[in-house]
Amino acid sequence: MENKQKILNMIGLAQKAGKVASGEFSTEKAVKTGKAYTVIVADDSSDNTKKMFTNMCTYYKVPIHFFSDKVSVGHAIGKEFRASLAVLDEGFAKTIEKYFEQGLE
């Protein structure tokens, strides 16, 4: 299985465990309260959204990834579409980071 699918699966598992904050407001709150271990923003999000999360994650020292598209990210957590989500569990975040490091090819 390719890493892109593995990442989506891990996001799904994290969601089932209640360890995902999704949507712009919840993701922002998770980062600012120090609960986010990694942030994923859909590649097809607006430039404004990408810039806001890039700046925020840089400031709060949270890893950020631009990944897949809104529909795939949303489907991974059982929603229609999502531009952003934060993983609230260190274990899930580390596994997802590992897959990103291995590359998405």
TrEMBL record:
Entry-linked Pfam families? Ribosomal_L7Ae
Matches recorded under InterPro entries: Ribosomal_eL30-like (IPR039109), Ribosomal_eL30-like_sf (IPR029064), Ribosomal_eL8/eL30/eS12/Gad45 (IPR004038)
Q: Name one GO molecular function term.
A: RNA binding
Q: What domain of life?
A: Bacteria
Q: Which GO terms describe its cellular component?
A: ribonucleoprotein complex; ribosome
What protein am I looking at? Answer: Ribosomal protein eL8/eL30/eS12/Gadd45 domain-containing protein
Supply the alphabetized keyword list: Ribonucleoprotein, Ribosomal protein
Residue ranges constituting the Ribosomal protein eL8/eL30/eS12/Gadd45 domain according to the UniProt record: 6-95
